[in-house]
């Protein structure tokens, strides 16, 4: 019989995988928002990433979220393009056990 900790660990891994799958969609939305200079939408997504990254044990996603928020507030399109590209590369390199 599996322990409660082992069951939670397996479930949490599934939750993390689902979270990362949703973030792939968020990157698409972010790219579109940057192309339209929709800084409000970028700020909202950044805020959500800032809050959710640490909850799923991805502190780097929290940092990307914070960066997106700040650059959206500053209307920094070039900086946002770079951050979205870096976030996309980071997500592509992640592996969930």
Keywords:
mainly alpha, elongated, 84% helix, 4 helices, Four Helix Bundle (Hemerythrin (Met), subunit A), 97 residues, single chain
Describe this structure in words.
The protein is mainly alpha-helical. It has a single domain (10-93), classed as Up-down Bundle (Four Helix Bundle (Hemerythrin (Met), subunit A)). The chain is built from 4 helices and no strands. Helix 1 (4-35) runs antiparallel to helix 4 (77-93), helix 2 (39-55) runs antiparallel to helix 3 (59-73) and helix 3 runs antiparallel to helix 4. The mean pLDDT is 93.
Write the layout of secondary structure elements.
Blueprint: H1 4-35, H2 39-55, H3 59-73, H4 77-93
Helix pairs in contact: 1-2, 1-4, 2-3, 3-4
Structure, briefly:
This protein is mainly alpha-helical.
Number of domains: 1
Please give the CATH class: Mainly Alpha
Predict the CATH topology: Four Helix Bundle (Hemerythrin (Met), subunit A)
Q: Supply the number of helical segments.
A: 4
How confident is the prediction overall: mean pLDDT?
A: 93
Q: Structural class, from secondary structure content?
A: mainly alpha
CATH architecture: Up-down Bundle
CATH superfamily: HPT domain
Distance between the terminal alpha carbons, to the nearest Å?
Answer: 21 Å
Largest sheet: none
Secondary-structure element pattern, one letter each: HHHH
Number of strands: 0
Uncertain residue segments: none
Strand content: under 5%
Q: What's the shape? A: elongated
Tell me the radius of gyration: 15 Å
How much helix, percentage-wise, in residues? Answer: over 70%
């Amino acid at each position: 019989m599996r322990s409660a900790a082992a069951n939670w660990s397996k479930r949490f891994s599934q939750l993390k995988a689902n979270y990362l799958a949703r973030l792939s969609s968020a990157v698409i939305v972010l790219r579109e928002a940057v192309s339209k200079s929709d800084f409000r939408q970028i700020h909202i997504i950044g805020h959500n990433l800032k809050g959710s990254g640490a909850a799923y044990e991805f502190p780097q996603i929290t940092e990307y979220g914070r960066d997106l928020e700040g650059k959206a507030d500053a209307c920094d399109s070039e900086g946002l393009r770079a951050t979205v590209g870096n976030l996309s590369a980071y997500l592509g390199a992640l592996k969930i056990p």
